């Protein structure tokens, strides 16, 4: 923490502080090396942070977000809210029909890391926002084929997974259409692909947080 009580990130090498920078609300743009596949972040002083290991990159992003969140002043509550409670008269009657939770003797854990679970997930990791809803509404007005919100999210999810696994290979329209044959017609997939590419370039990163 700095003298002005701002949370900063410090880069050290051989025990010496090389640079210090503030974690802003919007994370700095990053790029991927086409040769080493390492993720690189440029700093204001000309330095570049290079992450050859994706786990190190994920740890850095988490630290960056924690510092960024702490730099945003939270609202000051005038009073502490007290939640209200009320009894459920029929709860005791139905309790015998339920299966109460039995705490296991070991810790509850999930198998694999976050990326592994995201890649194996059958439902979409991507959640539509208001911009997507507006664009999809226009698409459905122009096309005879109706594209559901679920299918739109699954198509975007498929693009994100393919690009994450092969960041140096260009995902062109033809490849995009072939990987989403079961989610929509060729025309629909190509339209969503064009929209996805435009939005990804605007944000300068992948759209699903776990793949960023």
TrEMBL record:
The Enhancer of polycomb-like N-terminal domain, residue ranges: 78-161
Listed InterPro entries: Enhancer_polycomb (IPR024943), Enhancer_polycomb-like_N (IPR019542)
Keyword Transcription: yes
Keyword Nucleus listed: yes
Keyword annotations: Nucleus, Transcription, Transcription regulation
Family as reported in the entry's similarity comment: Belongs to the enhancer of polycomb family.
Protein name: Enhancer of polycomb-like protein
Species this protein is from: Trifolium medium
């Amino acid at each position: 923490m700095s003298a002005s009580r701002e949370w900063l990130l410090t880069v050290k090498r051989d025990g010496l502080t090389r640079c210090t920078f503030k974690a802003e609300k919007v994370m700095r743009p990053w790029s991927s090396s086409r040769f080493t596949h390492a993720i690189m972040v440029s700093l204001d002083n000309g330095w570049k942070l290079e992450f050859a290991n994706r786990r190190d990159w994920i740890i850095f992003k988490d630290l960056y977000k924690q510092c960024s969140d702490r730099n945003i002043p939270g609202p000051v509550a005038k009073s502490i809210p007290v939640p209200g409670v009320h009894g459920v008269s029929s709860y005791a009657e139905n309790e015998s029909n339920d299966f109460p939770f039995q705490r296991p003797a070991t810790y509850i854990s999930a198998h694999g890391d976050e990326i592994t679970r995201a890649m194996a997930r059958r439902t979409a990791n991507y959640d539509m926002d208001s911009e997507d809803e507006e664009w999809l509404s226009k698409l459905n007005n122009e096309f005879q084929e109706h594209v559901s919100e679920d299918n739109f999210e699954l198509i975007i999810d498929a693009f994100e997974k393919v690009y994450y696994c092969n960041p140096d290979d260009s995902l062109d329209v033809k490849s995009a259409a072939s990987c989403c044959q079961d989610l929509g017609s060729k025309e629909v997939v190509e339209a969503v692909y064009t929209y996805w590419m435009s939005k990804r370039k605007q944000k300068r990163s992948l759209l699903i947080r776990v793949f960023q």
